[in-house]
Amino acid sequence: MSLDKPFGPPTSSVAEKFATTREMDLSDAPSVIQYLASVIMAAMATAIAAGFDRYQAIPNLSLIYVLPVIVSSVAFGLGPALFSAFLGALAYNFFFTEPRFSLAVADTANIWAIALLFIVGCVTSTIVAAKRHDKGELDRFHRQQEKLGTYAQQMLDATTAEEARALTLSILTSLFQAPAVVLSVGHGDDLAIKSETTLVPAEVDAAREACASQTCVEAGVYPFDQSRFDFWPVRTRSERKTILGVAFDPDRRPAHTDAAMSMIALMLGATIDRHQI
């Protein structure tokens, strides 16, 4: 195998076209921070409940603990929300049911109150987390469509196949927030790589397989177990074949990537063919 000189990273002018600041999303915070915030909110709810309980007995005092569940659901997702529901039931039992400052329950009715609080918290967190996920998916879809629209316009304005490859590398990185590569295979199986990431031999072999089979080759699948990248072939009339690769985070892999990758591959292939006619 002979290795051409890498294309290198896109120029600053190209990179600036897709330079975006990722929106702040509390669900991206470390798990420790999310669960610590749930503990703090449960403590605040306990302090508020204690303030009310000190001056007047309130029958539905346990409902105060539903608020941290809702906030955790909206801000962090299902896991921290369920944790908030558990903490709320535990705190209500410990501080506000007889005997106080004990996990023992003297009155059977309080057992049902504690169980109901936990059930309400679980149901609420599940519903809110599901709505939050749906909204997040819709927002991501809209952002993706905007970026693809910009990419399509820039591909129409591209003056060379090299610029088209640079634009494609930028859109892949921006769209998926993950390492990306654009590879080109020519005569003699020589390989040129456009990437800021070094490929291991298993990834090079996976890319060649995608090129030979003209099908997507996924990461971590035998016999390319060590490959981090999913590879998609780009269909062109050029003798030099092009392959796209993205190294998705296994824990945060976006849904429906094939549709977006098919559109990108189609636009890149058409642009390459246009400049080689």
Number of helices: 8
Report the CATH C-level class of the largest domain: Alpha Beta
Helices and strands, in N-to-C order?
A: HHHHHHEEHEEH
Total count of strands: 4
At CATH level 3, the topology of the largest domain is Beta-Lactamase
Q: Quaternary arrangement of the chains shown?
A: single chain
**Which of globular, elongated, flat, extended, rod-shaped describes the shape?**
elongated
Class from secondary-structure proportions = alpha+beta
**Largest β sheet strand count, sense and barrel closure:** 4 strands, antiparallel
CATH H level, superfamily name of the largest domain: GAF domain
Low-confidence residue ranges = 1-24
Whole-number count of domains? 2
Distance between the termini: 28 Å
Main sheet: which strands, in order across?
Answer: 2-1-4-3
Give the helix level as a range of percent.
Answer: 55-70%
What is the strand content? Answer: 5-15%
Overall mean confidence score, pLDDT? 81
Q: Radius of gyration in whole Å, from Cα?
A: 27 Å
CATH architecture of the largest domain: 2-Layer Sandwich
